Every structure is written in C-alpha cells, then in structure tokens.
Amino acid sequence: MEYQFLLADSGLGGLFTALGLNWQTFILDLIAFLVTAWIVGEYVFPPLTKALDAKREELEAAARMEKQSEAKLAEAEKSAAGVLNKARTSADEIIATAHADAAAQLEAARARAKEQSDRLVAEAREQLARDVSQARRELKGETAKLVVQATERLLDEKLDSKHDEGLIKRSLEEVK
Fold first, then answer.
1. Cβ atoms of residues 152 and 166 within 8 Å
2. CA torsion angle for 154, 160, 161, 162 (degrees, to 10)?
3. pTM of this prediction?
4. What's residue 142's pLDDT?
5. Which residues of 94-108 are buried (b: 16+ CB within 10 A; e: fewer)?
6. How far apart are CA 144 and CA 175, in angstroms?
7. What whole-number distance in Å separates Cα of residue 155 and Cα of residue 153?
8. Which portions of the chain are predicted below pLDDT 50?
C-alpha cells in the first residue's frame, strides 16, 4: 500500500510527505544549516586554525630549543670534563711540587741538625779534653804533694820496704 502511495504521489513533495517531513521546514532547516556552516567556516575555523598553527609552531620551536639545549649541555659537560681534568692535572703537579719541596726542606733540616750535632759533639769532645787535661794537671799536682808528704814522713822514719808500704797506704788514706 505504501508503495502505491509513493508511486501515486510522485515528486519531491510526495517523498517528503511519505517520510513524514514538511518540505518547507526542511528547506528552512537547510538554509539555517548552510548559514551556520558558512558563519562557522568564515568566523570560527580561521581563528581556531590560526591558534592551532601557532600552538604547533610553538611546540616545534620548543622542540628545536630542547635539541639546542641538549647540544649545549653536552658541549658544556665536555668542557667541564676538560676543565676538571686540567684542574686534576694541575693539582697533581702542585702536590708533587709540594712533596718535592717538603723533601728538600726535610733534607736541609736534617743536614743542619747533623751539622749542629757534629758541632756540639766536637765542642763536647774539646771540653772533655780540656777537663781531662785539667784533671791530669790537678792529679799531677796532688800526686806531687802526696809524694812530697810521703817523702817527708819517710825521711822522718827509717827506710824499710814493709814499713814504706804501710806508710804510703796511711798517707793515701789520710788524703782521702
């Protein structure tokens, strides 16, 4: 039946009526849609497209800057490593020089100490030799005095070898 209705009412108006539409409303809706599409295409899409393009360019610029920053960072790290190696080499040289200077100063101090100790030993030996010489002179003087005293006593008494030994011992004990 419906097929007959469609066939019977041929034309555009019959099709719309068969679909339950009003062709005048459809045309008004179509015009409203086209006007809306034109307004959106004319006033909404261009600024939106510009904003999206600007954002894309901004992101691309940020990506380029990131790559440049990474390259600069790698270069700075290489430079820092070079400076650090130079500083380590310089520090090693300074330490080696300081060790050499310290060794030289230590050796010089040892040499001065040896010279001073040798001088002190020589002075002590000289003083000891003077003291020994003076003690010998004093001992000779004392011995001479003892001999004189012993001789005086011997002369006062008769000479006898046993008696002489006792006399010498007594004389020596008296002197002590």
1. no
2. -100
3. 0.39
4. 80
5. eeeeeeeeeeeeeee
6. 13
7. 5
8. 1-9
| Cα(15)–Cα(6) distance, integer angstroms | 7
Token pair for 62: 């940020």
Which amino acid belongs to residue 77? E
Give pLDDT, residue 16: 66
The C-alpha atoms of residue 86 and residue 103 are separated, in whole angstroms, by 25
State the Cα–Cα distance between residues 64 and 49, nearest whole angstrom.
Answer: 22
Single-letter amino acid code for the residue at 87: A
Annotate 72-93 with three-state secondary structure: HHHHHHHHHHHHHHHHHHHHHH
Q: Where are the domains of the chain?
A: 2-175
- Judged on CB neighbours under 10 Å (0-12, 13-18, 19+), 28 is exposed
86, burial (CB in 10 Å: exposed 0-12, middle 13-18, buried 19+): exposed
* pLDDT at site 160: 63
- Could you tell me how many residues make up the chain? 176
Question: What is the three-class DSSP state of 43?
Answer: helix
Within the chain, how many helices (H) and strands (E) appear?
A: 5, 0
